[in-house]
Design a protein that fits this description.
Elements lengths: L1 E5 L3 H10 L5 E5 L12 E3 L6 H10 L2 E4 L6 H8 L8 H7 L2 H10 L7 E4 L2 H11 L3 E5 L9 E4 L2 H4 L2 H4 L5 E5 L5 E9 L5 E3 L3 E6 L2 E7 L6 H14 L4 E10 L2 E8 L9 H4 L4 H10 L11 E8 L5 H6 L3 E5 L9 E9 L2 H16 L1
Parallel strand pairs: 1-2, 1-4, 2-3
Antiparallel strand pairs: 5-8, 6-7, 6-8, 9-10, 9-11, 9-13, 11-12, 12-15, 13-14, 15-17, 16-17
Helix pairs in contact: 1-11
The protein binds adenosine monophosphate.
Length: 360
């Protein structure tokens, strides 16, 4: 089976690393000449709106999936005429736009911060009056890793903020005084069977994921599964979806969903029976799903900007290196390490060892 992937970054690369043993081959459509997934499959170097190349991709593959959600809706609609596309155009339409996403949470009874649609500075002023400060303003589309957002703490921060974010449609959200951030990675098959990985504790540095630790028997697991299950059913979703939550007042508030494999699920490559990448491929290909059970205690640390010396990373016991083969650039996700240990005490010690390398 040949899988077409829109986007050829590290997520596509890790998908191919998981799918190749299943007998799958891959074609990646990505405009970047140095798209790092090209080491694992065919690279169709074209813009996401280039219909001739989209048609080429559709003709070559059995189905198409995505490694990022900011794909133009027209691209998905165009591809869907020729080839099955998972997740669906509708799932992407909702997940790529924070207003649609939050409105869906509200409709499904999933708690989320107060929010308002912002189309102008006047809308922003009215929303600040209603929601109060502090608040977080975010572009409705194209924001990621803390980009396209601004925390408004004082009235002076509100002045001109709409123009500062590019005068594009935004939302304003109430600021959540969270005690922690967790995510749930789930997979849903074509026949509706759904499986959930354990909740993951996430630490972000400057809006970018730094550390994920897989939990054991988290008291909020069942609640998170209930919320995520509602979304998967509503969207008749096929594939892996990640749902990010704030932990607050002993409960959960929805932050956002990603309709794809997710950075907070990278630990599953070594830390779960079947990784998020393999399970995504199993789901879209109509294969039985694999076990989402955890194997030991597991964590993931991102390498931003550069990967520490390979010999030092692999010298750490229980440590697995994933080097994406990308050019090093400040702030860029260029690799990660997964730690898989017998117990939590050892895991914490290993995390400290990797963090020391990152800081060195
Ligand atoms: P996002 O791109 O929406 O995931 O936001 C990136 C990070 O900003 C989150 O992981 C939080 O650490 C922080 N953040 C986003 N929205 C809020 C909010 N409403 N209240 C408090 N912190 C937030």
């Amino acid at each position: 089976m040949k899988i077409g992937v829109i986007g050829g970054g590290q997520l596509g690369r890790m998908m191919a690393l998981a799918g190749t043993p299943l007998g799958m081959s891959f074609a990646f459509l990505d405009p970047a000449p140095d798209a790092c997934a090209q080491a694992l499959g065919e690279h169709i170097r074209a813009d996401y709106s280039d219909q001739a190349h989209l048609r080429q991709l559709a003709d070559e593959v059995d189905l198409v999936t995505f490694e990022f959600e900011s794909v133009p809706a027209e691209t998905v609609a165009f591809l869907s005429q020729f080839v099955p596309v998972y997740p669906s155009a509708e799932a992407l339409r909702i997940a790529r736009d924070r207003w649609f996403e939050k409105s869906m949470f509200k409709d499904l009874g999933i708690p989320t911060p107060a929010f308002a649609d912002i189309q102008s500075q006047a809308d922003l002023d009215a929303a600040v009056a209603a929601i109060g400060l502090p608040a977080v303003m975010k572009t409705r589309t194209l924001g990621y890793d803390g980009k396209g957002q601004k925390v408004l703490r004082a009235p002076a921060d509100v002045v001109g903020a709409f123009a500062e974010l590019g005068s594009v449609p935004c939302i304003l959200e109430g600021f959540v005084p969270f005690t922690g951030e967790v995510s749930l990675v789930a997979v849903r098959a074509r026949d509706g069977e759904t499986r959930f990985y354990p909740l993951v504790h996430n630490r972000h540095d400057s809006g970018v994921l730094a550390l994920s630790i897989a939990s054991t028997d988290h008291p909020l697991q069942a609640l998170a599964e209930d919320y995520v299950g509602r979304v998967l059913k509503q969207l008749d979703y096929v594939g892996v979806l990640a749902f990010e939550f704030f932990e607050v007042d002993g409960g959960l508030k929805a932050n956002e969903i990603a309709p794809r494999v997710h950075n907070s699920g990278h630990w599953t490559i070594e830390g779960a029976e079947c990784s998020q990448f393999e399970n995504h491929l199993r789901a879209v290909a109509g294969l039985p799903l694999g076990s989402t059970a955890k194997v030991g205690e597991s964590a993931m640390l991102n390498f931003l900007g550069e990967v520490p010396a390979v010999e030092k990373v692999v010298a750490i016991a229980d440590c697995h290196l994933h080097h994406y083969g990308k050019a090093f650039k400040a702030g860029r996700k260029v690799g990660h390490a997964t730690l898989r240990c017998q117990d939590m005490t050892t895991l914490k010690a290993r995390i400290a060892e990797v963090e020391a390398l990152i800081k060195a």
